[in-house]
Every structure is written in C-alpha cells, then in structure tokens.
Design brief:
By secondary structure, the chain is an alpha+beta fold. Helices cover 21% and strands 30% of the residues. The N terminus is likely disordered.
Length: 201
C-alpha cells in the first residue's frame, strides 16, 4: 500500500474568505487622509521615520502595542483603525468576513467584531497569540477601560506590578491608564476576547 506523505503543518492564518488587512496599507491611507508626512507621523508616535516607512512598505510588522501607538497618533482608536478601508460599520459581522490584521512581531492576529455603529463606545475584538508571542515588548498604557476573557489556551497578563496567569474562561478588568501586557508562554495558541470601552467625547 502506497504511503501518502503528510502535509507539513501550517501556521495559524486567517481563512482566505476573511477580509485580511495590512497595517502598512491602513497607516499610509490614514496618514495621507490627515495630510501628514512620514516624519511628522513618526514624531507624533515616537518612532523613527524609517520604521514608519518600513511599516507602510510592508517591510516591518509592528507589535499590537506599537500599532495602537500609531493609530493614536493618527487620531483613531484601534477599532477605528480597522474601519479606515470601509468606514461604514455593518450591522452583522459574519465569522468568515471579520476584518483581520496580522502582527508578525507579536506573533498574533487581531479580528474585529465591531463596532456596529459609528457612535459606538464599545470596540470588541478577538486576539489570537501564538506561542512566544506578546502584545508588546513591555507593559503599555491605554486610555480606555477594557474587559478581557480568555477563550482558548493560557495567557500571562502583566497589570501594573502584578503578573497573573489566566486560563480558558478567566476574565480580567483592565482600568483605563493601567500599564499592561499580554504574553503567551505556553506551547499552544491562546485566544482572548477584548472589549474596549471608550468614554464619550
């Protein structure tokens, strides 16, 4: 009987039917929309102009934390960052058509679940972090409250000076202004649902 060789395992990637976006394309589109030069944007978010250029040219993939810093410098939240290509939020987001952004540095993918209205104060998303991946190099501050629920695997959450090991089903409340960082120290992918609550302007 002929032996059929096994196909090599593939890294976790979004389904081809999902709307995969590239951070660099979104950054360039928003930067031009705001009439900012690469150097001006770099100054606003604290990165070098060469790094911003590399991101826009798809030569560098920023971490989740760095993506949030760039989005903030462009005057948008991470949820609004997803809507740069399609500014009209749908009432229903099918699982096969979630907007997806990859972060090679963080070894993670971010899938947007909303918002469903332009004036929504809630931004839900699912983040899948591969083994060895992290949301950032060190804990960072977000000026918005968050609720996080572990959907799969185990994750280490650094919240201010404390470190917590969370498993499937565990939830964490992250107050606005608190330094925090997510890290996957296990040998399996981990997934979290994060809902960010922005205060009304």
């Amino acid at each position: 009987m002929a032996i059929v060789p096994k196909k090599p395992s593939k890294p976790l990637t979004p389904s081809p039917t999902k709307s995969e976006l590239h951070v660099g394309d979104i950054v360039r589109q928003l930067r031009k929309r705001h009439h900012l030069s690469v150097r001006t944007l770099a100054d606003k978010c604290g990165f070098s102009p060469s790094f911003i250029s590399q991101v826009e040219l798809r030569q560098a993939s920023p971490s989740i934390a760095s993506t949030e810093r760039i989005a903030s410098a462009l005057g948008v939240t991470l949820g609004e960052f997803f809507r740069a290509v399609d500014p009209t939020p749908p009432a229903i987001i099918r699982v096969a058509s979630r907007p997806v952004v990859q972060s090679e540095w963080s070894r993670a993918k971010i899938e947007a679940l909303g918002p469903f209205r332009k004036d929504s104060q809630l931004e839900p998303m699912i983040i899948t972090i591969q083994p060895g991946g992290a949301s950032g190099h060190k804990p960072y501050v977000r000026q918005a409250e968050q609720l996080a629920v572990v959907l799969m695997g185990t994750l280490e959450l650094t919240l201010e000076e404390e470190i917590y090991n969370l498993k499937r089903g565990d939830a964490a409340g992250i107050p606005a202004g608190n330094r925090h960082c997510w890290r996957n120290n296990s040998k399996r992918p981990a997934q979290i649902l994060i809902v960010t609550a922005h205060r009304p302007m």
